Give the backbone structure.
Amino acid sequence: MRALGVALGLVLVAGCRGVPWQPHAYETAVRVEALDVRFAPDGSGLLTLKLEVRNPTSDLALITGVDFELAVDGRRLAVGLQQVEVGLGEDGVPRALEVSFPLVSQGTAGGVSHLHHQVRLSGGVLLRYGPRTERRATFLVERTMELPWLPPPEPMLE
C-alpha cells in the first residue's frame, strides 16, 4: 500500500514539475521593451507595448492575453485586455510580443500640454500550460513622458 502512495505521489510531482507554484517566478518573466501612449483631441488614442516574454517553467506555454491599467499623474485613464495566441517555448528564450490597444476618451476640452507627465503602466501576460493551468506574469513600468494632449478628467458625480 505504501508503494502505491509513493507511485501516486511521483506521478503528481512529475505532472506539475514545470509549473512553479511560487508567484515570484512570474515577476521577472515579462519586460516592457517599449511603451508609446498617444491621445488626440478628437478622443482617439493608442497605447502600444513591445514586450519581451520568457517562460519561467520547463513546460510549453501559450500566451493567451495581455491586460493593462494606465495611469497618468495618478489618474487612471484606461484599462484593457487583449486576447492573443502566441506559443512560448520551454527553453527560456525570450519572445518578442507587440500589442496595441485603442484608447477612447471624451473629445473636446482636454488639456493641451507639452509638459512631462508621470506615466504608470501595470498589467500582466496570461500564460496557459495545458488545458487547465493558467498563470499571470506581471509587469510594472513608471516613466516620465511628454504627452502633447491629455483627455479631460471624468466629471464628478454629486
User: Anything to note?
Assistant: The beta strands are 30-39, 44-53, 61-72, 75-88, 95-104, 111-112, 116-129, 133-146, 149-150. Helices lie at 2-15. The chain is about 10% helix and 55% strand.
